[in-house]
Amino acid sequence: MPMNERDRPFAATFAPGLFAGRTVLITGGGGTINRGIGRGFASLGAQVALLGRTAATLEDAARELAAYGGRVLPLVADVERIDTLEAACRRCEEELGPIDVLVLGAAANFPAPAEQMSASGFSKVIDVDLKGSFNAARAAFSQLKRTRGSIIFVSATNSLMPFAFQCHVGAAKAGMDSLMRGLALEWGPHGIRCNSVLPGPIEETEGLGRLLTQEDVETLRDYVPIGRFGTVEDVAAVALFLASPAASLLTGVALIADGGQAFSGSAMVAEVMANP
Description:
Helix content: 40-55%
Order of helices and strands: HEHEHEHEHEHEHHHEH
Radius of gyration: 18 Å
Strand order of the largest sheet: 3-2-1-4-5-6-7
Low-confidence stretches: none
Shape: globular
Number of helices: 10
Mean pLDDT: 91
């Protein structure tokens, strides 16, 4: 298919067909960033399974990715229920082949001051982001062991520095990065590499629009050393690198992809987000 602007970073940086014959499963596959990661893998020849809870969203994303010529499989499952994940992984292997790359992108988020947050609200983010990541990794383990595959955690810079009204997300993402390192240690002897990508604010994502007003977005952008927020394609490129042979020595690594935004510190972010 003709290359468009969204494909350009992948075509300019990675060899055509780099992931031909490889199977990639992405949790939270209908989300903006995860869909972009799927587009990156599909454009480089991978077969892609998109896993999530909403069939219509997954089917829409699958139609987009299928235009690259590879097979794309939407899988309805819930990362909070390991039985549905195990069934989805079995179907993925039956229809696409064993999983070579697992992208853990399922996430929950909402802004809330800690003193107003319910216990169930806090638990929901932990259950989806952290426990859901473990559930998916555990469900895919036997296939990843056979393929000597790679796991990529889609974390966030919240894991390194606190953001106001995001203590639940920070706790979940820090847990994900710790889990990533633990699995890198335990599963490394099986040939499985585990790494995280930590995006900062990403343009044109639902999360950015939910957390900040447009005025706040413009203010926050001024503090980014490179002068811009990241794009979905930027995050996808990091994921592609981590899954590629160029990163064959990397495991237990958390790559920050925020243009240096974290250098400005928590106090600045808290000031910008003063009115959730």
